[in-house]
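It is worth pausing here to work through a concrete case rather than discussing structure prediction in the abstract. The textbook approach is simple: state the sequence, then state the predicted structure, then interpret. We follow exactly that order.
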Amino acid sequence: MRRARPGAPPRGTGGRTLTSVGAGAGFDGSGPADRRDERPGRPEPRPAGQEHTPSKLWHVTLCVSGNEFPLKEVRRGLEQLAHDHPFLLTSRYANDHAEIRYWEEARDLHDAAAVALRLWGEHRSTAGLPPWAIVGLEVIDRETYHQRVAEGYGPPPAAPVGVHPY
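Step two, the predicted structure:
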């Protein structure tokens, strides 16, 4: 039994309430996260005057480097990152640098790059990643990625999905 004033929120909540958040107006519904069939006939609310900008897929390559770190710990940290965030395609590593490649869904290049630039730092402690700095970032749209691969000058194929040494 909870003792409180009638209508008062539970202690420690500060008046906060939990709400459900939809995919948002920027989601174009073409991916596996399309949930429109669960909410038939309910269009997403959009502020007046705001245009609909659908999300796109961006191929991200993030390069990090720093002081030497034990290979086993680098591999374990990258595997933990891949486990925590299954969107990662592949990671390559050595004892003083690593490269992470993945697809990011975002409204534009700026949003995809902002997420990528936060990835390493935000997950450094939770995944046990080395204290390395970001030294390179490439964000390209899906069409450019496929064009590069077709012309033979794109990044090496990510066929071996997972964490691999250089």
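Step three, interpretation. Helices lie at 71-84, 109-127, 142-151. The chain has three helices and five strands.
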